């Protein structure tokens, strides 16, 4: 009630007039009433009424906050948070080593960033997560839906369908092994068609479309309250060209990160971003670092870096508030990321030495089996 | 669309006029401002500004589709999803062939057969759908002046002798391949920008750029300061334009690239140099530090890291022995790592089975 007039969310012109007329607190405004206000300041009665309604709403919101109301506040004790975290689900990746280093899987209400060189499997993991988030609760999933925002155009429906089919088959195997009633019931609604219909796909061509989409995301998530995962595949791509003003880029990225944190918290969903790697030239070496600069590194809560070691793919948990840094090997099969598997991909090609051509196949696994 | 004027975003006339006084005329300008700045320029309250933001976002944001709708759309028109390369094993692994609607890159050392492959694909695209083609015209942007019309006819005649049995058919095919010789980066970019209109007017079904690397590496010397950023900028802009065109018209785009052996660009990452304790960096090996226990000089595709992110599929051609070469699927969202052997014959590329 004693709130200063200058801090109220009214239009700047109106605020300037109120201050010029000598109003100092919100209480004074409410006491004057719309007719008195309109006469004193020289605005119409409707405008005065609108202004008073805004003030009233603001004060009601303030009062709720100071009284410790539960709804809009974000204040709680660490014990409540612990209970919440323990009951919270994780989105599993079906790669047990990856799930282990993440502490169970991709966490809800947090932003996870996946960085990696091209071709290392970031989009594959995103597609896998979009399928895994829909696993019914009786199988250990969170039974949610997924929003997939694609900026690079690398989402392949056929591949997503393959992963979904494999996931359904996996759950069917579990159900057959355990023979429980709720398993079979859940399987009835868990099919390829339902999985694909619950992946909401947006294709953003430039950073403006991305910004616009993220502004509209809260409304979309309120309508589709079962969404538990938001994937932005390629947050770096639209921001890496056509930007002469780097400070604008930093500002927009920070704003984006803030909005994503709010979305993750308010809607209890996980946000997964994929980032590119860029070459940074050091003194006599060049290094691959995640793109978008140092300040972007603060945006994500958990950071995974995917890289190669000769022919083995490795995932390093670089940043996490609760898990230890570690590196694990993983592979991609036709069923998606799996821990035990068949083939690996060779990204480097040995040089041509002394004019005689060499074959790359001799350095990769001689028994490259395909499932 | 970023350059959409605010008028078309259904904002009121006076608001648009007021904003134009601050030089805010497009959706891009509007969305780049923070909320407080927006309050200042529009003169509206906080809540109203949020409503305006939502309105402008609605005008720019993309349409939602579910993955299921996309799948259904694909299955209605399966032949339009891929362009078969007529190399059957390769097509099987790639789930059909060169994917439509995304960028495919072909990288190799000189002389392996990139241009041969491109010429073969041009022939294939003009074939009718019943034979696995796209029944359309081809735009071939040639930066190396390597395209040979005689070779085109030779490949067509030898690969599909039953179809191209008359001169008439051959001429019809050659008429639908539009060749553009561009020798500078600027002209290539201009040509890419003009693609949208050409595709509609000439019913183009395939775009080939042979090669991106030669024109870029000619003009940008990455050792000079500032050139690296400019080069990345050019490549990124070209890539996004091509992606837009590819997706909009659902056609395949094939680009060719070169191999570089430059030591500082090697992508080999030995495990012992990678440690989470290093801050945010994965060190690359430079040739000098190789102690002989492994091959220290590595070859990778040219044009850098950012370009590698922009292409969706990458095929690498390389030498196997004196006669045979091999084609490696290095990056693909649908196919695993695979290798195929081939030779270059009169009819273009022919797959071989090597018993090792």
UniProtKB/TrEMBL annotation, chain A:
SUPFAM superfamilies in the record: P-loop containing nucleoside triphosphate hydrolases (SSF52540)
All copies of domain RecA family profile, residue ranges: 87-277
GO cellular component: a single term: perinuclear region of cytoplasm
The record's keywords, sorted A to Z, are:
ATP-binding, Cytoplasm, DNA damage, DNA recombination, DNA repair, DNA-binding, Mitochondrion, Nucleotide-binding, Nucleus, Phosphoprotein
Localization terms from the record: Cytoplasm, Perinuclear region; Mitochondrion; Nucleus
Which portions of this protein are annotated as coiled-coil regions?
A: none
* Gene Ontology BP annotations: meiotic DNA recombinase assembly; reciprocal meiotic recombination
Tell me, in one coarse class, where this protein mainly resides. cytoplasm
List GO molecular-function terms, semicolon-separated. ATP binding; ATP-dependent DNA damage sensor activity; DNA binding
CDD domains, A to Z: Rad51C
Q: Which family does it belong to?
A: Belongs to the RecA family. RAD51 subfamily.
- The entry's protein name is DNA repair protein RAD51 homolog 3
The species is Gallus gallus (Chicken)
TrEMBL record, chain B:
Q: Name one GO biological process term.
A: double-strand break repair via homologous recombination
State where the protein is found: Nucleus
- PROSITE patterns reported in the protein's UniProt record: RECA_2
Name the principal localization, coarsely classed. nucleus
What InterPro entries does the database record attribute to this sequence?
AAA+_ATPase (IPR003593), DNA_recomb/repair_RecA-like (IPR016467), HHH_XRCC3_RAD51B (IPR058766), P-loop_NTPase (IPR027417), Rad51_C (IPR013632), RAD51B (IPR030548), RecA_ATP-bd (IPR020588)
Which residues belong to any copy of the RecA family profile domain?
A: 79-259
Entry's SUPFAM superfamilies?
P-loop containing nucleoside triphosphate hydrolases (SSF52540)
Q: Mind telling me which SMART domains this protein's record contains?
A: AAA
Keyword Nucleotide-binding applies: yes
Recorded GO molecular functions are:
ATP binding; ATP-dependent DNA damage sensor activity; DNA binding
Q: Which UniProt keywords apply?
A: ATP-binding, DNA damage, DNA recombination, DNA repair, DNA-binding, Nucleotide-binding, Nucleus
Name the Gene3D superfamilies on file: P-loop containing nucleotide triphosphate hydrolases
Source domain of life is: Eukaryota
Instruction: Pull one GO CC term from this UniProt entry.
Output: Rad51B-Rad51C-Rad51D-XRCC2 complex
Q: How does it assemble?
A: Part of the BCDX2 complex consisting of RAD51B, RAD51C, RAD51D and XRCC2; the complex has a ring-like structure arranged into a flat disc around a central channel. The BCDX2 subcomplex RAD51B:RAD51C interacts with RAD51. Interacts with SWSAP1; involved in homologous recombination repair. Interacts with HELQ.
Family as reported in the entry's similarity comment: Belongs to the RecA family. RAD51 subfamily.
Q: What does this protein do?
A: Involved in the homologous recombination repair (HRR) pathway of double-stranded DNA breaks arising during DNA replication or induced by DNA-damaging agents. May promote the assembly of presynaptic RAD51 nucleoprotein filaments. Binds single-stranded DNA and double-stranded DNA and has DNA-dependent ATPase activity. Part of the RAD51 paralog protein complex BCDX2 which acts in the BRCA1-BRCA2-dependent HR pathway. Upon DNA damage, BCDX2 acts downstream of BRCA2 recruitment and upstream of RAD51 recruitment.
- Name the record gives this protein: DNA repair protein RAD51 homolog 2
Organism expressing this protein natively: Gallus gallus (Chicken)
Q: Which taxonomic lineage is given here?
A: Eukaryota, Metazoa, Chordata, Craniata, Vertebrata
């Amino acid at each position: 009630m004693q709130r200063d007039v200058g801090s109220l969310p009214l239009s700047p012109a109106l605020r300037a007039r109120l201050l010029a007329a000598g109003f100092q607190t919100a209480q004074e405004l409410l006491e004057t009433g719309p007719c008195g206000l309109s006469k004193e300041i020289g605005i119409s009665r409707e405008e005065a009424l609108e202004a008073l309604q805004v003030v009233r709403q603001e004060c009601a919101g303030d009062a709720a906050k100071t009284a410790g109301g539960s709804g809009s506040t974000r204040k709680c004790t660490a014990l409540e948070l612990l209970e919440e975290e323990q009951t919270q689900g994780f989105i599993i990746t079906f790669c047990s080593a990856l799930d282990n280093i993440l502490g169970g899987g991709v966490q809800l209400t947090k932003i996870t960033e996946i960085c990696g060189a091209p071709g290392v499997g970031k989009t594959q993991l995103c597609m896998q997560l979009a399928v895994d988030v829909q696993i019914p609760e009786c199988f250990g999933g969170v039974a949610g839906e997924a929003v997939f925002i694609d900026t690079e155009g690398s989402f392949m429906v056929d591949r997503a369908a393959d992963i979904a089919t494999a996931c359904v088959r996996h759950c069917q195997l579990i159900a057959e092994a355990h023979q429980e009633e709720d398993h079979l019931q859940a399987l009835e609604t868990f099919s390829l068609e339902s999985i694909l219909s619950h992946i909401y796909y947006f294709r953003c061509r430039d950073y403006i479309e991305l910004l616009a989409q993220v502004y509209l995301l809260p409304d979309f998530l309120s309508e589709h309250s079962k969404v538990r995962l938001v994937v932005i595949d390629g947050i770096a791509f639209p921001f890496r060209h056509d930007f002469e003003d780097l400070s604008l880029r930093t500002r927009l990225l920070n704003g984006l990160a803030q909005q994503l944190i709010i979305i993750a918290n308010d809607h209890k969903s996980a946000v997964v971003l994929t980032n590119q790697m860029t070459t940074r030239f050091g003194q006599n070496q060049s290094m691959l670092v995640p793109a978008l600069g140092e300040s972007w590194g603060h945006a994500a809560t958990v950071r995974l870096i995917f890289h190669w070691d000769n022919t083995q793919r490795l995932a390093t948990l670089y940043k996490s508030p609760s898990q230890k840094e570690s590196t694990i090997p993983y592979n991609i099969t036709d069923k998606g990321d799996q821990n035990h598997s068949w083939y690996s991909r060779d990204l480097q090609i040995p040089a041509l030495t002394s004019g005689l051509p060499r074959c790359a196949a001799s350095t990769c696994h001689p028994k490259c089996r395909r499932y | 669309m970023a350059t959409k004027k605010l008028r078309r975003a259904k904002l009121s006339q006076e608001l648009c006029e007021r904003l134009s006084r601050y030089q805010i005329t497009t959706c891009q300008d509007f969305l780049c401002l923070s909320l407080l700045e927006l309050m200042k320029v529009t003169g509206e309250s906080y809540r109203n500004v949020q409503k305006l933001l939502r309105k402008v976002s609605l005008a720019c944001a993309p349409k939602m589709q579910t993955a299921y709708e996309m799948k259904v759309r694909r299955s209605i028109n399966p032949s339009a999803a891929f362009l078969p390369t007529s190399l059957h094993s390769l097509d099987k692994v790639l789930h059909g062939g060169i994917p439509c609607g995304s960028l495919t890159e072909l990288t190799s050392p000189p002389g392996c057969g990139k241009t041969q492959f491109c010429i073969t694909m041009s022939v294939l695209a003009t074939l009718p759908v019943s034979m696995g083609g796209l029944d359309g015209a081809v735009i071939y942007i040639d930066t190396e002046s390597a395209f040979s019309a005689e070779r085109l006819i030779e490949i067509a005649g030898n690969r599909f002798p039953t179809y191209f049995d008359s001169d008439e058919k051959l001429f019809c095919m050659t008429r639908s391949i539009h060749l553009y010789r561009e020798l500078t980066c600027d002209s290539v970019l201009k040509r890419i920008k003009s693609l949208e209109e050409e595709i509609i007017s000439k019913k183009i079904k395939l775009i080939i750029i042979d090669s991106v690397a030669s024109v870029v590496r000619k003009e940008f010397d990455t050792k000079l300061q500032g050139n690296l950023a400019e080069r990345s900028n050019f490549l990124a802009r070209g890539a996004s334009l091509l992606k837009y065109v590819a997706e909009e018209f659902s056609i395949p785009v094939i680009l060719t690239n070169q191999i570089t052996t430059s030591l500082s660009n090697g992508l080999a990452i030995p495990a012992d140099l990678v440690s989470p304790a290093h801050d945010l960096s994965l060190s690359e090996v430079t040739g000098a530090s190789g102690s002989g226990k492994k091959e220290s000089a590595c070859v990778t595709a040219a044009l850098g890291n950012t370009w590698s992110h922009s292409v969706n599929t990458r095929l690498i051609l390389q030498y196997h022995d004196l006669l045979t070469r091999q084609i490696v699927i290095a990056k693909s969202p649908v196919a695993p790592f695979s290798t195929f052997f081939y030779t270059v014959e009169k009819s273009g590329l022919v797959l071989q089975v090597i018993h090792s």
